[in-house]
Amino acid sequence: MNYALIRYLFADFLLFLLLFGSIDSVQNLEISKVNQAPARRSLLSFPDNHDTALVAALDGTINLVYRDSGRIIWSFASGSPIYSSYQASTSHDDDKESAPVPEGSYYVDCGDDWKLYAHTDLGKVSMDMTMEEFIRIMPHVSEDGGVILGSKKTTAFVVDANTGRLIRVHHSSSTNEHSNFIFQKTTMKNEKSTMVNEKPDKQFSFTRTDYLLTSFAANSDKVLWNVTVADIDVALLCQEPPNKIIRPSLPLPNNLRSKSSVDFDFDFDFNMPLSCQSKAVVHRLRTSHKLGSYKIHGKQAEKKVPILLLPQNKPLLPNSNNNLDTQNPEIPSQQDVKKVNFLSEGRMAFVVIFILIIAIGGLMYRHHTIMAAMLKQKPSSSSRRKRHRKQGRIYANEDGNVDSERNPVLNFNHLIECDTEGRSIGKLFVSNKEIAKGSNGTVVLEGVYEGRKVAVKRLVRAHHDVAFKEIQNLIASDQHPNIVRWYGVEYDHDFVYLSLERCACSLYDLIQMKKGGLELDSINRDIIMHDVHLWKPNGYPSPILLKLMRDIVSGLVHLHELGIIHRDLKPHNVLIVKEKSICGKLSDMGISRRLVGDMLSLGLHATGSGSSGWQAPEQLLHGRQTRAIDLFSLGCVLFFCMTCGRHPFGDHLERDVNVVKNRVNLFLVRHIPEAFDLFSRLLNPNPELRPRAVDVLHHPLFWDSEVRMSFLRDTSDRVELEDRECDSVLLRELESKGSVALGGKWDEKMEPEFINNIGRYRRYKYNGVRDLLRVIRNKLNHYRELPKEIQELLGGVPEGFNDYFGSRFPKLLMEVYNVMYHYCKDEEWFYKYLEH
């Protein structure tokens, strides 16, 4: 007989008797007080500071409802239903829902728990992945020729949190598929009449992501099955009204709390369902009949219909797909709610506790048996350490996510190897390995957040306002591919920990490393060194470097469209990520500020000064700060990229003085006219004369060979219409640039055989810009008709053409562009060159 097992079970039985007596006595006490005690909270709810909830109905309507009654406060339509599925019939007998799946076939559907399941002839199998993860590996082509396609579309709604009024809608696609509901009047269920506030102090920012999977039969357009699912998350963004201070969402020490801090005042009788500057997942109703408790009209509006409370919203939690299942509980029917009482809850808790005790006893016995066996083997201490490390190791895939197939059970305390020191803080594991340092005690560490490798930005708790600003602006902007993603925040008594997208290095590190002035660790070197060439032998930027520079501009365009001024743009705050190709992302928005409403500047008393050497003159002189300060910093950053780490205003110690005195030196880029032109505009001391970020994105510096040649050809067609005898202003201005654009007679810079070829068809003026443009246009259009030796001379189209004419007339494109931009930018043919 196994006396150890009997001993553990006997201990369990004693503990069971104690708990049974405690529960029974508590129940008797509650029964005796039931007639005089106030109503207790049902187990169907749990403590929450918010008396409202956001619920998405199956038809796509988003509702703000009272939690206790289910009565709708306001609602609006977000589009198509949030879930639908279709499976084609495989035979005439398969009309029933329970029809079996034919052998060898399958279909994918979303279950009641919002997880993906594969339905096969063997039954229903969980796929252990989210819809987004499944779409990421699409398209899929099977051996028999069948195809599965996946798509993803995101729509953002900005809504007045008080009234539900739609303020604006943004789409990820160019087609405005939801235009039918953008201007739809919001349905108000609140009995009070309210005035529309043009500048609401609180706004909901809803992000709806629609996923679609479609399976096509082999060699056919027939759809075998499809499924659509929509995820909806929300952030509550609070503005800063004049003479008021927003109470931070992060808990503050008592000595930092201000008596003057006040909450917003409302003319409504409901609270917000989440805290300011926090994210949450909107609860989704899986089937249409469950919306019945909300569809209350007329006299029935006062009827109290209990509903299951949503999970309590924690401030500043990330929007993670991994949390969808736990944040979407099903709402029970009214009949089920009536059946629940305190006694049944106590008995259920008693049964659960009893089962847990038995399970714990079994585990203790198993642990006792294993330990006894290990003691018999007496392994050495070194082998125990090796085995312990091996068991504690977590494997990650190429994207940095934990591989669930090789890690069946995820324990966040052991996501990093056991010999790596660190600690867990909520959902975050922070290692002691330092990546970078910032100002005011800020340190960047390695970490893991919900199974994902992250960079942990640790800020001193006293600087909570910096973290608050950064989180607030990241919530609004981090969906863009050129903005560093933010995943979540945790905090302890001393620090705030921001979990950010893990990147390989900064732009500063990359430039310094490529010129040989910095050594990175072997892992980062392997990530970014392979086949990365930033400059051509002639000093021009490589396509990879031009893409990185364009990424920076693209990220800045996105921020400025949202009204966010970065205010600290520098190479250290541009991070490099190796995805399919190298990608640049803007980061570190701790001192960024958002322009509210029609504001064009932050005023004369804006706090935060940026970084020395990268500030605009108006920052250094404490003037008005507009979006233009970012454009000045952008000019310095792009110059830094193209010149292998040099600065247009000199060495570190003299930069700020030179910026104020406008002592700029662009000599290193004079051989690249497009760069010289752009940097001269960006570094203009007058902020009103600097270009907008979107104009920089479309500047000829970022054009490829095809766009360059297309522009010169279209310009030739445009100026060919001008009549010399009528003294055309456009033509006169174009020809006045000849001395700079051509550098003399253009026939002297070309081979005799090429000049002989063009002379067979037309007579040209060798000192005219229009005539040279006509040569380029004719040879492009009739390339196949050219003799083979002329084709070899010019090279291929368009790269060869661009190199041939660009090397002989490097200033031609920029001089022609400036003239045509001035005179023709409003003409239809020119529009496409303002959108590249």
Topology:
Elements: H1 3-32, E1 52-56, E2 61-66, E3 72-77, E4 83-87, E5 106-110, E6 116-120, E7 123-126, H2 131-136, E8 140-141, E9 147-160, E10 166-171, H3 179-182, E11 187-188, E12 202-216, E13 223-238, E14 278-281, E15 283-284, H4 334-338, H5 342-377, H6 381-391, E16 422-425, E17 428-437, E18 443-449, E19 452-460, H7 464-477, E20 486-491, E21 495-501, E22 505-506, H8 507-514, H9 522-529, H10 543-561, E23 564-565, E24 574-578, E25 582-586, E26 593-594, H11 617-620, H12 628-642, H13 655-660, H14 673-682, H15 693-697, H16 705-719, H17 729-736, H18 738-742, H19 752-758, H20 769-781, H21 788-794, H22 799-808, H23 812-824
Parallel strand pairs: 1-15
Antiparallel strand pairs: 1-2, 2-3, 3-11, 4-13, 5-6, 6-7, 8-9, 9-10, 9-12, 12-13, 13-14, 16-17, 17-18, 18-19, 19-21, 20-21, 22-24, 23-26, 24-25
Transmembrane segments: 348-365
Subunit structure: Homodimer; disulfide-linked. Dimer formation is driven by hydrophobic interactions within the N-terminal luminal domains and stabilized by disulfide bridges.
Catalytic activity: L-threonyl-[protein] + ATP = O-phospho-L-threonyl-[protein] + ADP + H(+); L-seryl-[protein] + ATP = O-phospho-L-seryl-[protein] + ADP + H(+)
